[in-house]
Design goal:
By secondary structure, the chain is α+β, with helices and mostly antiparallel strands. Helices cover 66% and strands 19% of the residues. The strands form 2 sheets. A two-stranded antiparallel ribbon has the order 1-2. Strands 3-4 form a two-stranded antiparallel sheet. It is elongated.
């Protein structure tokens, strides 16, 4: 394989790794957003715990809200995945939130590790591609 073909292959690899890094970064952001939502959920459950009734604004669509009264603050209907929701008392709900957050943290850690690995490969390939490009330009085989 000549140097120009080798350079083209390296550029293709770099582009693939950069796309993979971008996808992983998007996944990291989504996981962090989900974890933040769980933090808000847990705080809200704790804030409502033990109150007889609470008035709240409930979204009704298109950015509109209506006042509503939450009469039962001792139970929470929690999504457990696959479109299934179950009624749980406040303590069970908080444990479910903690469990979901731990699963997200594990996924986040794995995704960050993968992102670091891809970033390391990019950091190794980039200088080699730049050096090969400079050599080809110096030899007059590639134009700027």
């Amino acid at each position: 394989m000549d140097d120009q073909q080798k350079l083209q292959q390296m550029i293709s690899q770099l582009n693939a790794y950069k796309n993979q890094a971008e996808a992983l970064q998007n996944q990291v952001q989504a996981l962090q957003t989900s974890m933040a939502e769980l933090d808000v959920l847990k705080k809200t459950i704790e804030d409502l715990q033990g109150k007889d009734s609470v008035e709240s604004l409930v979204p009704v669509g298109a950015g509109a809200f209506m006042k509503a009264e939450i009469k039962d603050t001792s139970n929470v209907v929690m999504s457990i995945g696959s479109g299934i929701a179950v009624k749980q008392n406040v303590e069970e709900a908080k444990k479910t939130v903690d469990s979901q957050k731990e699963e997200l943290k594990d996924s986040l850690d794995k995704t960050l590790k993968s992102l670091q690995e891809v970033t390391d490969v990019i950091a190794q390939l980039s200088p080699a591609a730049e050096k090969l490009m400079a050599n080809l330009q110096a030899d007059g085989q590639v134009s700027n």
